[in-house]
Amino acid sequence: AQSVTQPDIHITVSEGASLELRCNYSYGATPYLFWYVQSPGQGLQLLLKYFSGDTLVQGIKGFEAEFKRSQSSFNLRKPSVHWSDAAEYFCAVLPSGGSYIPTFGRGTSLIVHP
Amino acid sequence: ETGVTQTPRHLVMGMTNKKSLKCEQHLGHNAMYWYKQSAKKPLELMFVYNFKEQTENNSVPSRFSPECPNSSHLFLHLHTLQPEDSALYLCASSQEGYYGYTFGSGTRLTVV
Questions:
Q1: pLDDT tens digits for B44-90?
Q2: N or C: which end of chain B has fewer CB atoms below 10 A?
Q3: Distances in Å between the alpha carbon of B9 and those of A5, A48, A68, B15, B89?
Q4: In 3-state terms, what secondary structure has residue B101?
Q5: In chain B, whose CA is at the least distance from the CA of A35?
Q6: Rounded to an integer, what distance in angstroms lies between the CA atom of residue B12 and that of residue A112?
Q7: Contact call for residues B96 and A49 (beta carbons, < 8 A)
Q8: How far apart are CA B6 and CA A28, in angstroms?
Q9: Which of B33, B43, B101 sits opposite A46 (nearest CB)?
Q10: What is the dihedral of CA A103, A64, A62, A102, to 10 degrees?
Q11: How far apart are CA B59 and CA A66, in angstroms?
Q12: Do the chains contact at A104 and B97, CB–CB below 8 Å?
């Protein structure tokens, strides 16, 4: 069965520092990959998605993610974090071909220190 | 404006009450979903509707009853809930799934 692992429950960074949130998946074929962000009291918002092609994907709010097939990873990055980036981040995996229901990771909570 | 609107935003209900959650999307999506999000638990898929037909029911207790009268509206009818049902209930919609989901802001439900 496919699975998604976000190894870090919490990540703390200082404002202006760079950020990398990890996501690993277990699936036979290359799936579709997504990152979502959830601000407190809100629903999830799609940051970016990977289908195929260029392994570096640009998203909204200055985020990017890199797909590494050899590592089964899809890590989210941002070069300089703003206080407003403090939120919960979810990685999601959708098998290519067939199902339209993704598997979500458990989330990583980002704390930003001034 | 997220494209998916959920009402109410907050709901407090007693265990003997009956209430309904409403979700509306005007994005032209063909699938709609109910998720439950509890503290310290992963996102739980409850129900899936694809072209108004229910295609998934993830072993959800019968005290939760979904209704999808058309492809733009989704309801979750609640009755005789338990305190452990207190959670954030999220509605989402998608077109073919692989474009990603659009989520509503959720209904924060408290069962007393």
A1: 999 999 877 777 777 899 999 999 999 899 999 999 999 999 999 99
A2: N
A3: 30, 26, 39, 19, 10
A4: coil
A5: B100
A6: 32
A7: no
A8: 36
A9: B101
A10: -10
A11: 35
A12: no
Question: Is-contact A88 A38, C-beta < 8 A?
Answer: yes
Q: Which residues of B touch A43 (CB under 8 A)?
A: 2, 4, 6, 90, 92, 103-106
Q: How many helices (H) and strands (E) does chain A have?
A: 0, 12
Spacing of C-alpha A11 from chain mean position: 13
Are A99 and B108 in contact (CB < 8 Å)? no
Residue A11, token pair as written in the block: 């990540």
Chain B residues in contact with A5 by the CB 8 A cut-off are: none
HSE-CB of A76 using CA atoms within 13 angstroms: 30
Could you read off the pLDDT of A8-62 as tens digits, one per residue? Answer: 999 999 999 999 999 999 987 778 999 999 999 899 999 999 988 889 999 999 9
